[in-house]
Amino acid sequence: MQIAHFSDVHALSLEGARPWQFLSKRLAGYINLQLNRRDKHPVRLFEAIVEDLNRRPPDEVIVTGDLVNLSLEPEFALARSILDKIALGPHHVTVVPGNHDVYTLDALAKRSFWRAFRPYAEGDRAHEDAEFPVVRERGEVAIVGISTALPSPVPLADGWVGRRQLAALEVALGRLAGKFRILALHHPPYTNRHSILRGLRDRGALQAVLARVGCELVLHGHEHRSLRRELPGPDGPIPVVGVGSGTYEDPRRERRASYNVYTVENKRLVSVETRIHDPATNRFI
Ligand SMILES: [Fe+2]
Ligand SMILES: [Fe+2]
Fold first, then answer.
1. Is the pLDDT of residue 281 over 70?
2. How far is ligand 2, taken at its centre, from the CA of residue 142, in Å?
3. Which end of the chain is more exposed for a tag (fewer CB within 10 A), N or C?
């Protein structure tokens, strides 16, 4: 089974945005974006990922958040329209939110992420007010997606799983033991040098859940870098893979836009392929 994983495409569209939407955090985020990001995450790279996925389709796709920048409606509409071009369809494409998808209290209150991506974010037991964690069982694989996204004041970009979700996650992972369980979340579940401002606050509690009930693979984004770690599990170390931004344009190969494809055979991770953007052809190779 092949599972593709991309993240942090940061689709930008300011079409129809009104000035008052940029007040407060958005104002700071907007200025920062104008200075740093405007040409850094071109939408054509997001489209190139979709073309690559359609050329050589995996069985499943996982997207670990930050699909947009400022949680504006036109951005969600743009990101949704590009996701909808993935031929596999939402049943086989699982999306969890990043901090930029729940960037403001307004976006949280309006449940903008959920409304924009519902077919991609609901689990097998979908219902009207479905919340994370979501579980999708697909053959030998079970995908468990959690939300770590919360609005937080500038300059924070931190995340939080929360006690309710942690308890539900532990139950879900316990029930799914025997499958190849993939946990998908936006923030890295371990301490790094960005943890104070950009880290997952309750990563210790999440690590304790994983140590008790286990999981076969953890996937995250947020750092815009390709990262490999391990966390302790009940039967040995659990591989943790952070994928780089899917759309970052940078001359340095190690920072350039990329996405991963994992191959799982007989409930074991047998390979990780990283596909990197080739600026000359706008293709992933
Ligand atoms: Fe990001
Ligand atoms: Fe992020």
1. yes
2. 24
3. C
